[in-house]
């Protein structure tokens, strides 16, 4: 449904310029600490994993190291899997789900798979509980050559040496009520387009790659996650956020064409998870557990093939 412009920045029908970007930046408030909530946890992983800085995000006088966690005994003959979280920094369970997976489950896969984990791709977005970066760019539409998003460009540089070697990539996300109340309206305002609303799905769902669908992989993840939290049903139109369901809890996007994170590795098996933290039927702990269950299910699928 298209609605008239109502976002408090910009003029209906006109894309933003520098003045509107400055107004938007002035509204952003730091609400939590990347150093305290993410980096401090990563510090405790050095004894068990290879931990390295793969880049830095710098905005004005703010600087954020970008961290990657890798299997300590990398073996070229093992399948290689990438796990990413916090591409949209506000999507909390993606970040903490990735960290919990490393802390609690990754050791189970030693000698079975090479793991590369980037738990918080967008630290400025994490601190400001924001979908975009400081430049009002969505990192998860910016994974392409010449990316304008520092976060996306840095992650692509990280994975480049192994591109073509990845068997799977699981990218951890959330769909929240603020998608409808804030992030979709501001996107329409930024681009000078009408706001097209969609209902927010109540539950977990997955996004498969329309150019490379892997229904058995997605089904395995759904079956594992539904032991932890509920799966989103179809909406009144028979889909989820404007896309038709191709299976229970699964829709498809053209990942590479849209510049999505899950399209960067060339892996055969890719999936974007989406949990719903605002559901009356799920707690924050369940959302994190669902992310961990999704990663573990994806890994079990890969290592048994």
Notes on the protein architecture:
The chain is an alpha/beta fold. It has one domain (about 1-305): Zn peptidases (Aminopeptidase, 3-Layer(aba) Sandwich). It contains eight helices and twelve strands. Strands 2-3-5-4-6-12-8-11 form an eight-stranded mixed sheet, with helices on both faces. A hairpin with a 2-residue loop joins strand 9 (about 240) and strand 10 (about 245). Helix 3 packs across helix 8 (about 285-305) and helix 7 crosses helix 8. The longest helix is centred in the last third of the chain and has 20 residues, at about 285-305. The chain is globular. It starts with a strand and ends with a helix. Belongs to the peptidase M14 family.
Largest sheet: spatial strand order? 2-3-5-4-6-12-8-11
Total number of β-strand segments?
12
Helix content: 25-40%
What sequence of helices (H) and strands (E) makes up the elements? Answer: EHHEEEHEHHEHEEHEEEEH
**What is the CA-CA span between the terminal residues?**
43 Å
Q: What is the global morphology?
A: globular
Strand content: 15-25%
User: Which architecture does the CATH hierarchy give at level 2?
Assistant: 3-Layer(aba) Sandwich
Mean pLDDT: 96
Oligomer state of the chains in this structure: single chain
CATH homology-level superfamily: Zn peptidases
How many domains make up the coordinates?
Answer: 1
Q: Under the CATH scheme, which class?
A: Alpha Beta
Low-pLDDT windows of residues:
none
**Which fold name fills CATH's third level, the topology?**
Aminopeptidase
What characterizes the major β-sheet?
Answer: 8 strands, mixed
Q: Structural class of the helices, strands and pairings?
A: alpha/beta
Radius of gyration: 19 Å
Helix tally equals 8
InterPro entries: Peptidase_M14
Family: Belongs to the peptidase M14 family.
Organism: Rhodoferax lithotrophicus
Protein name: Peptidase M14 domain-containing protein
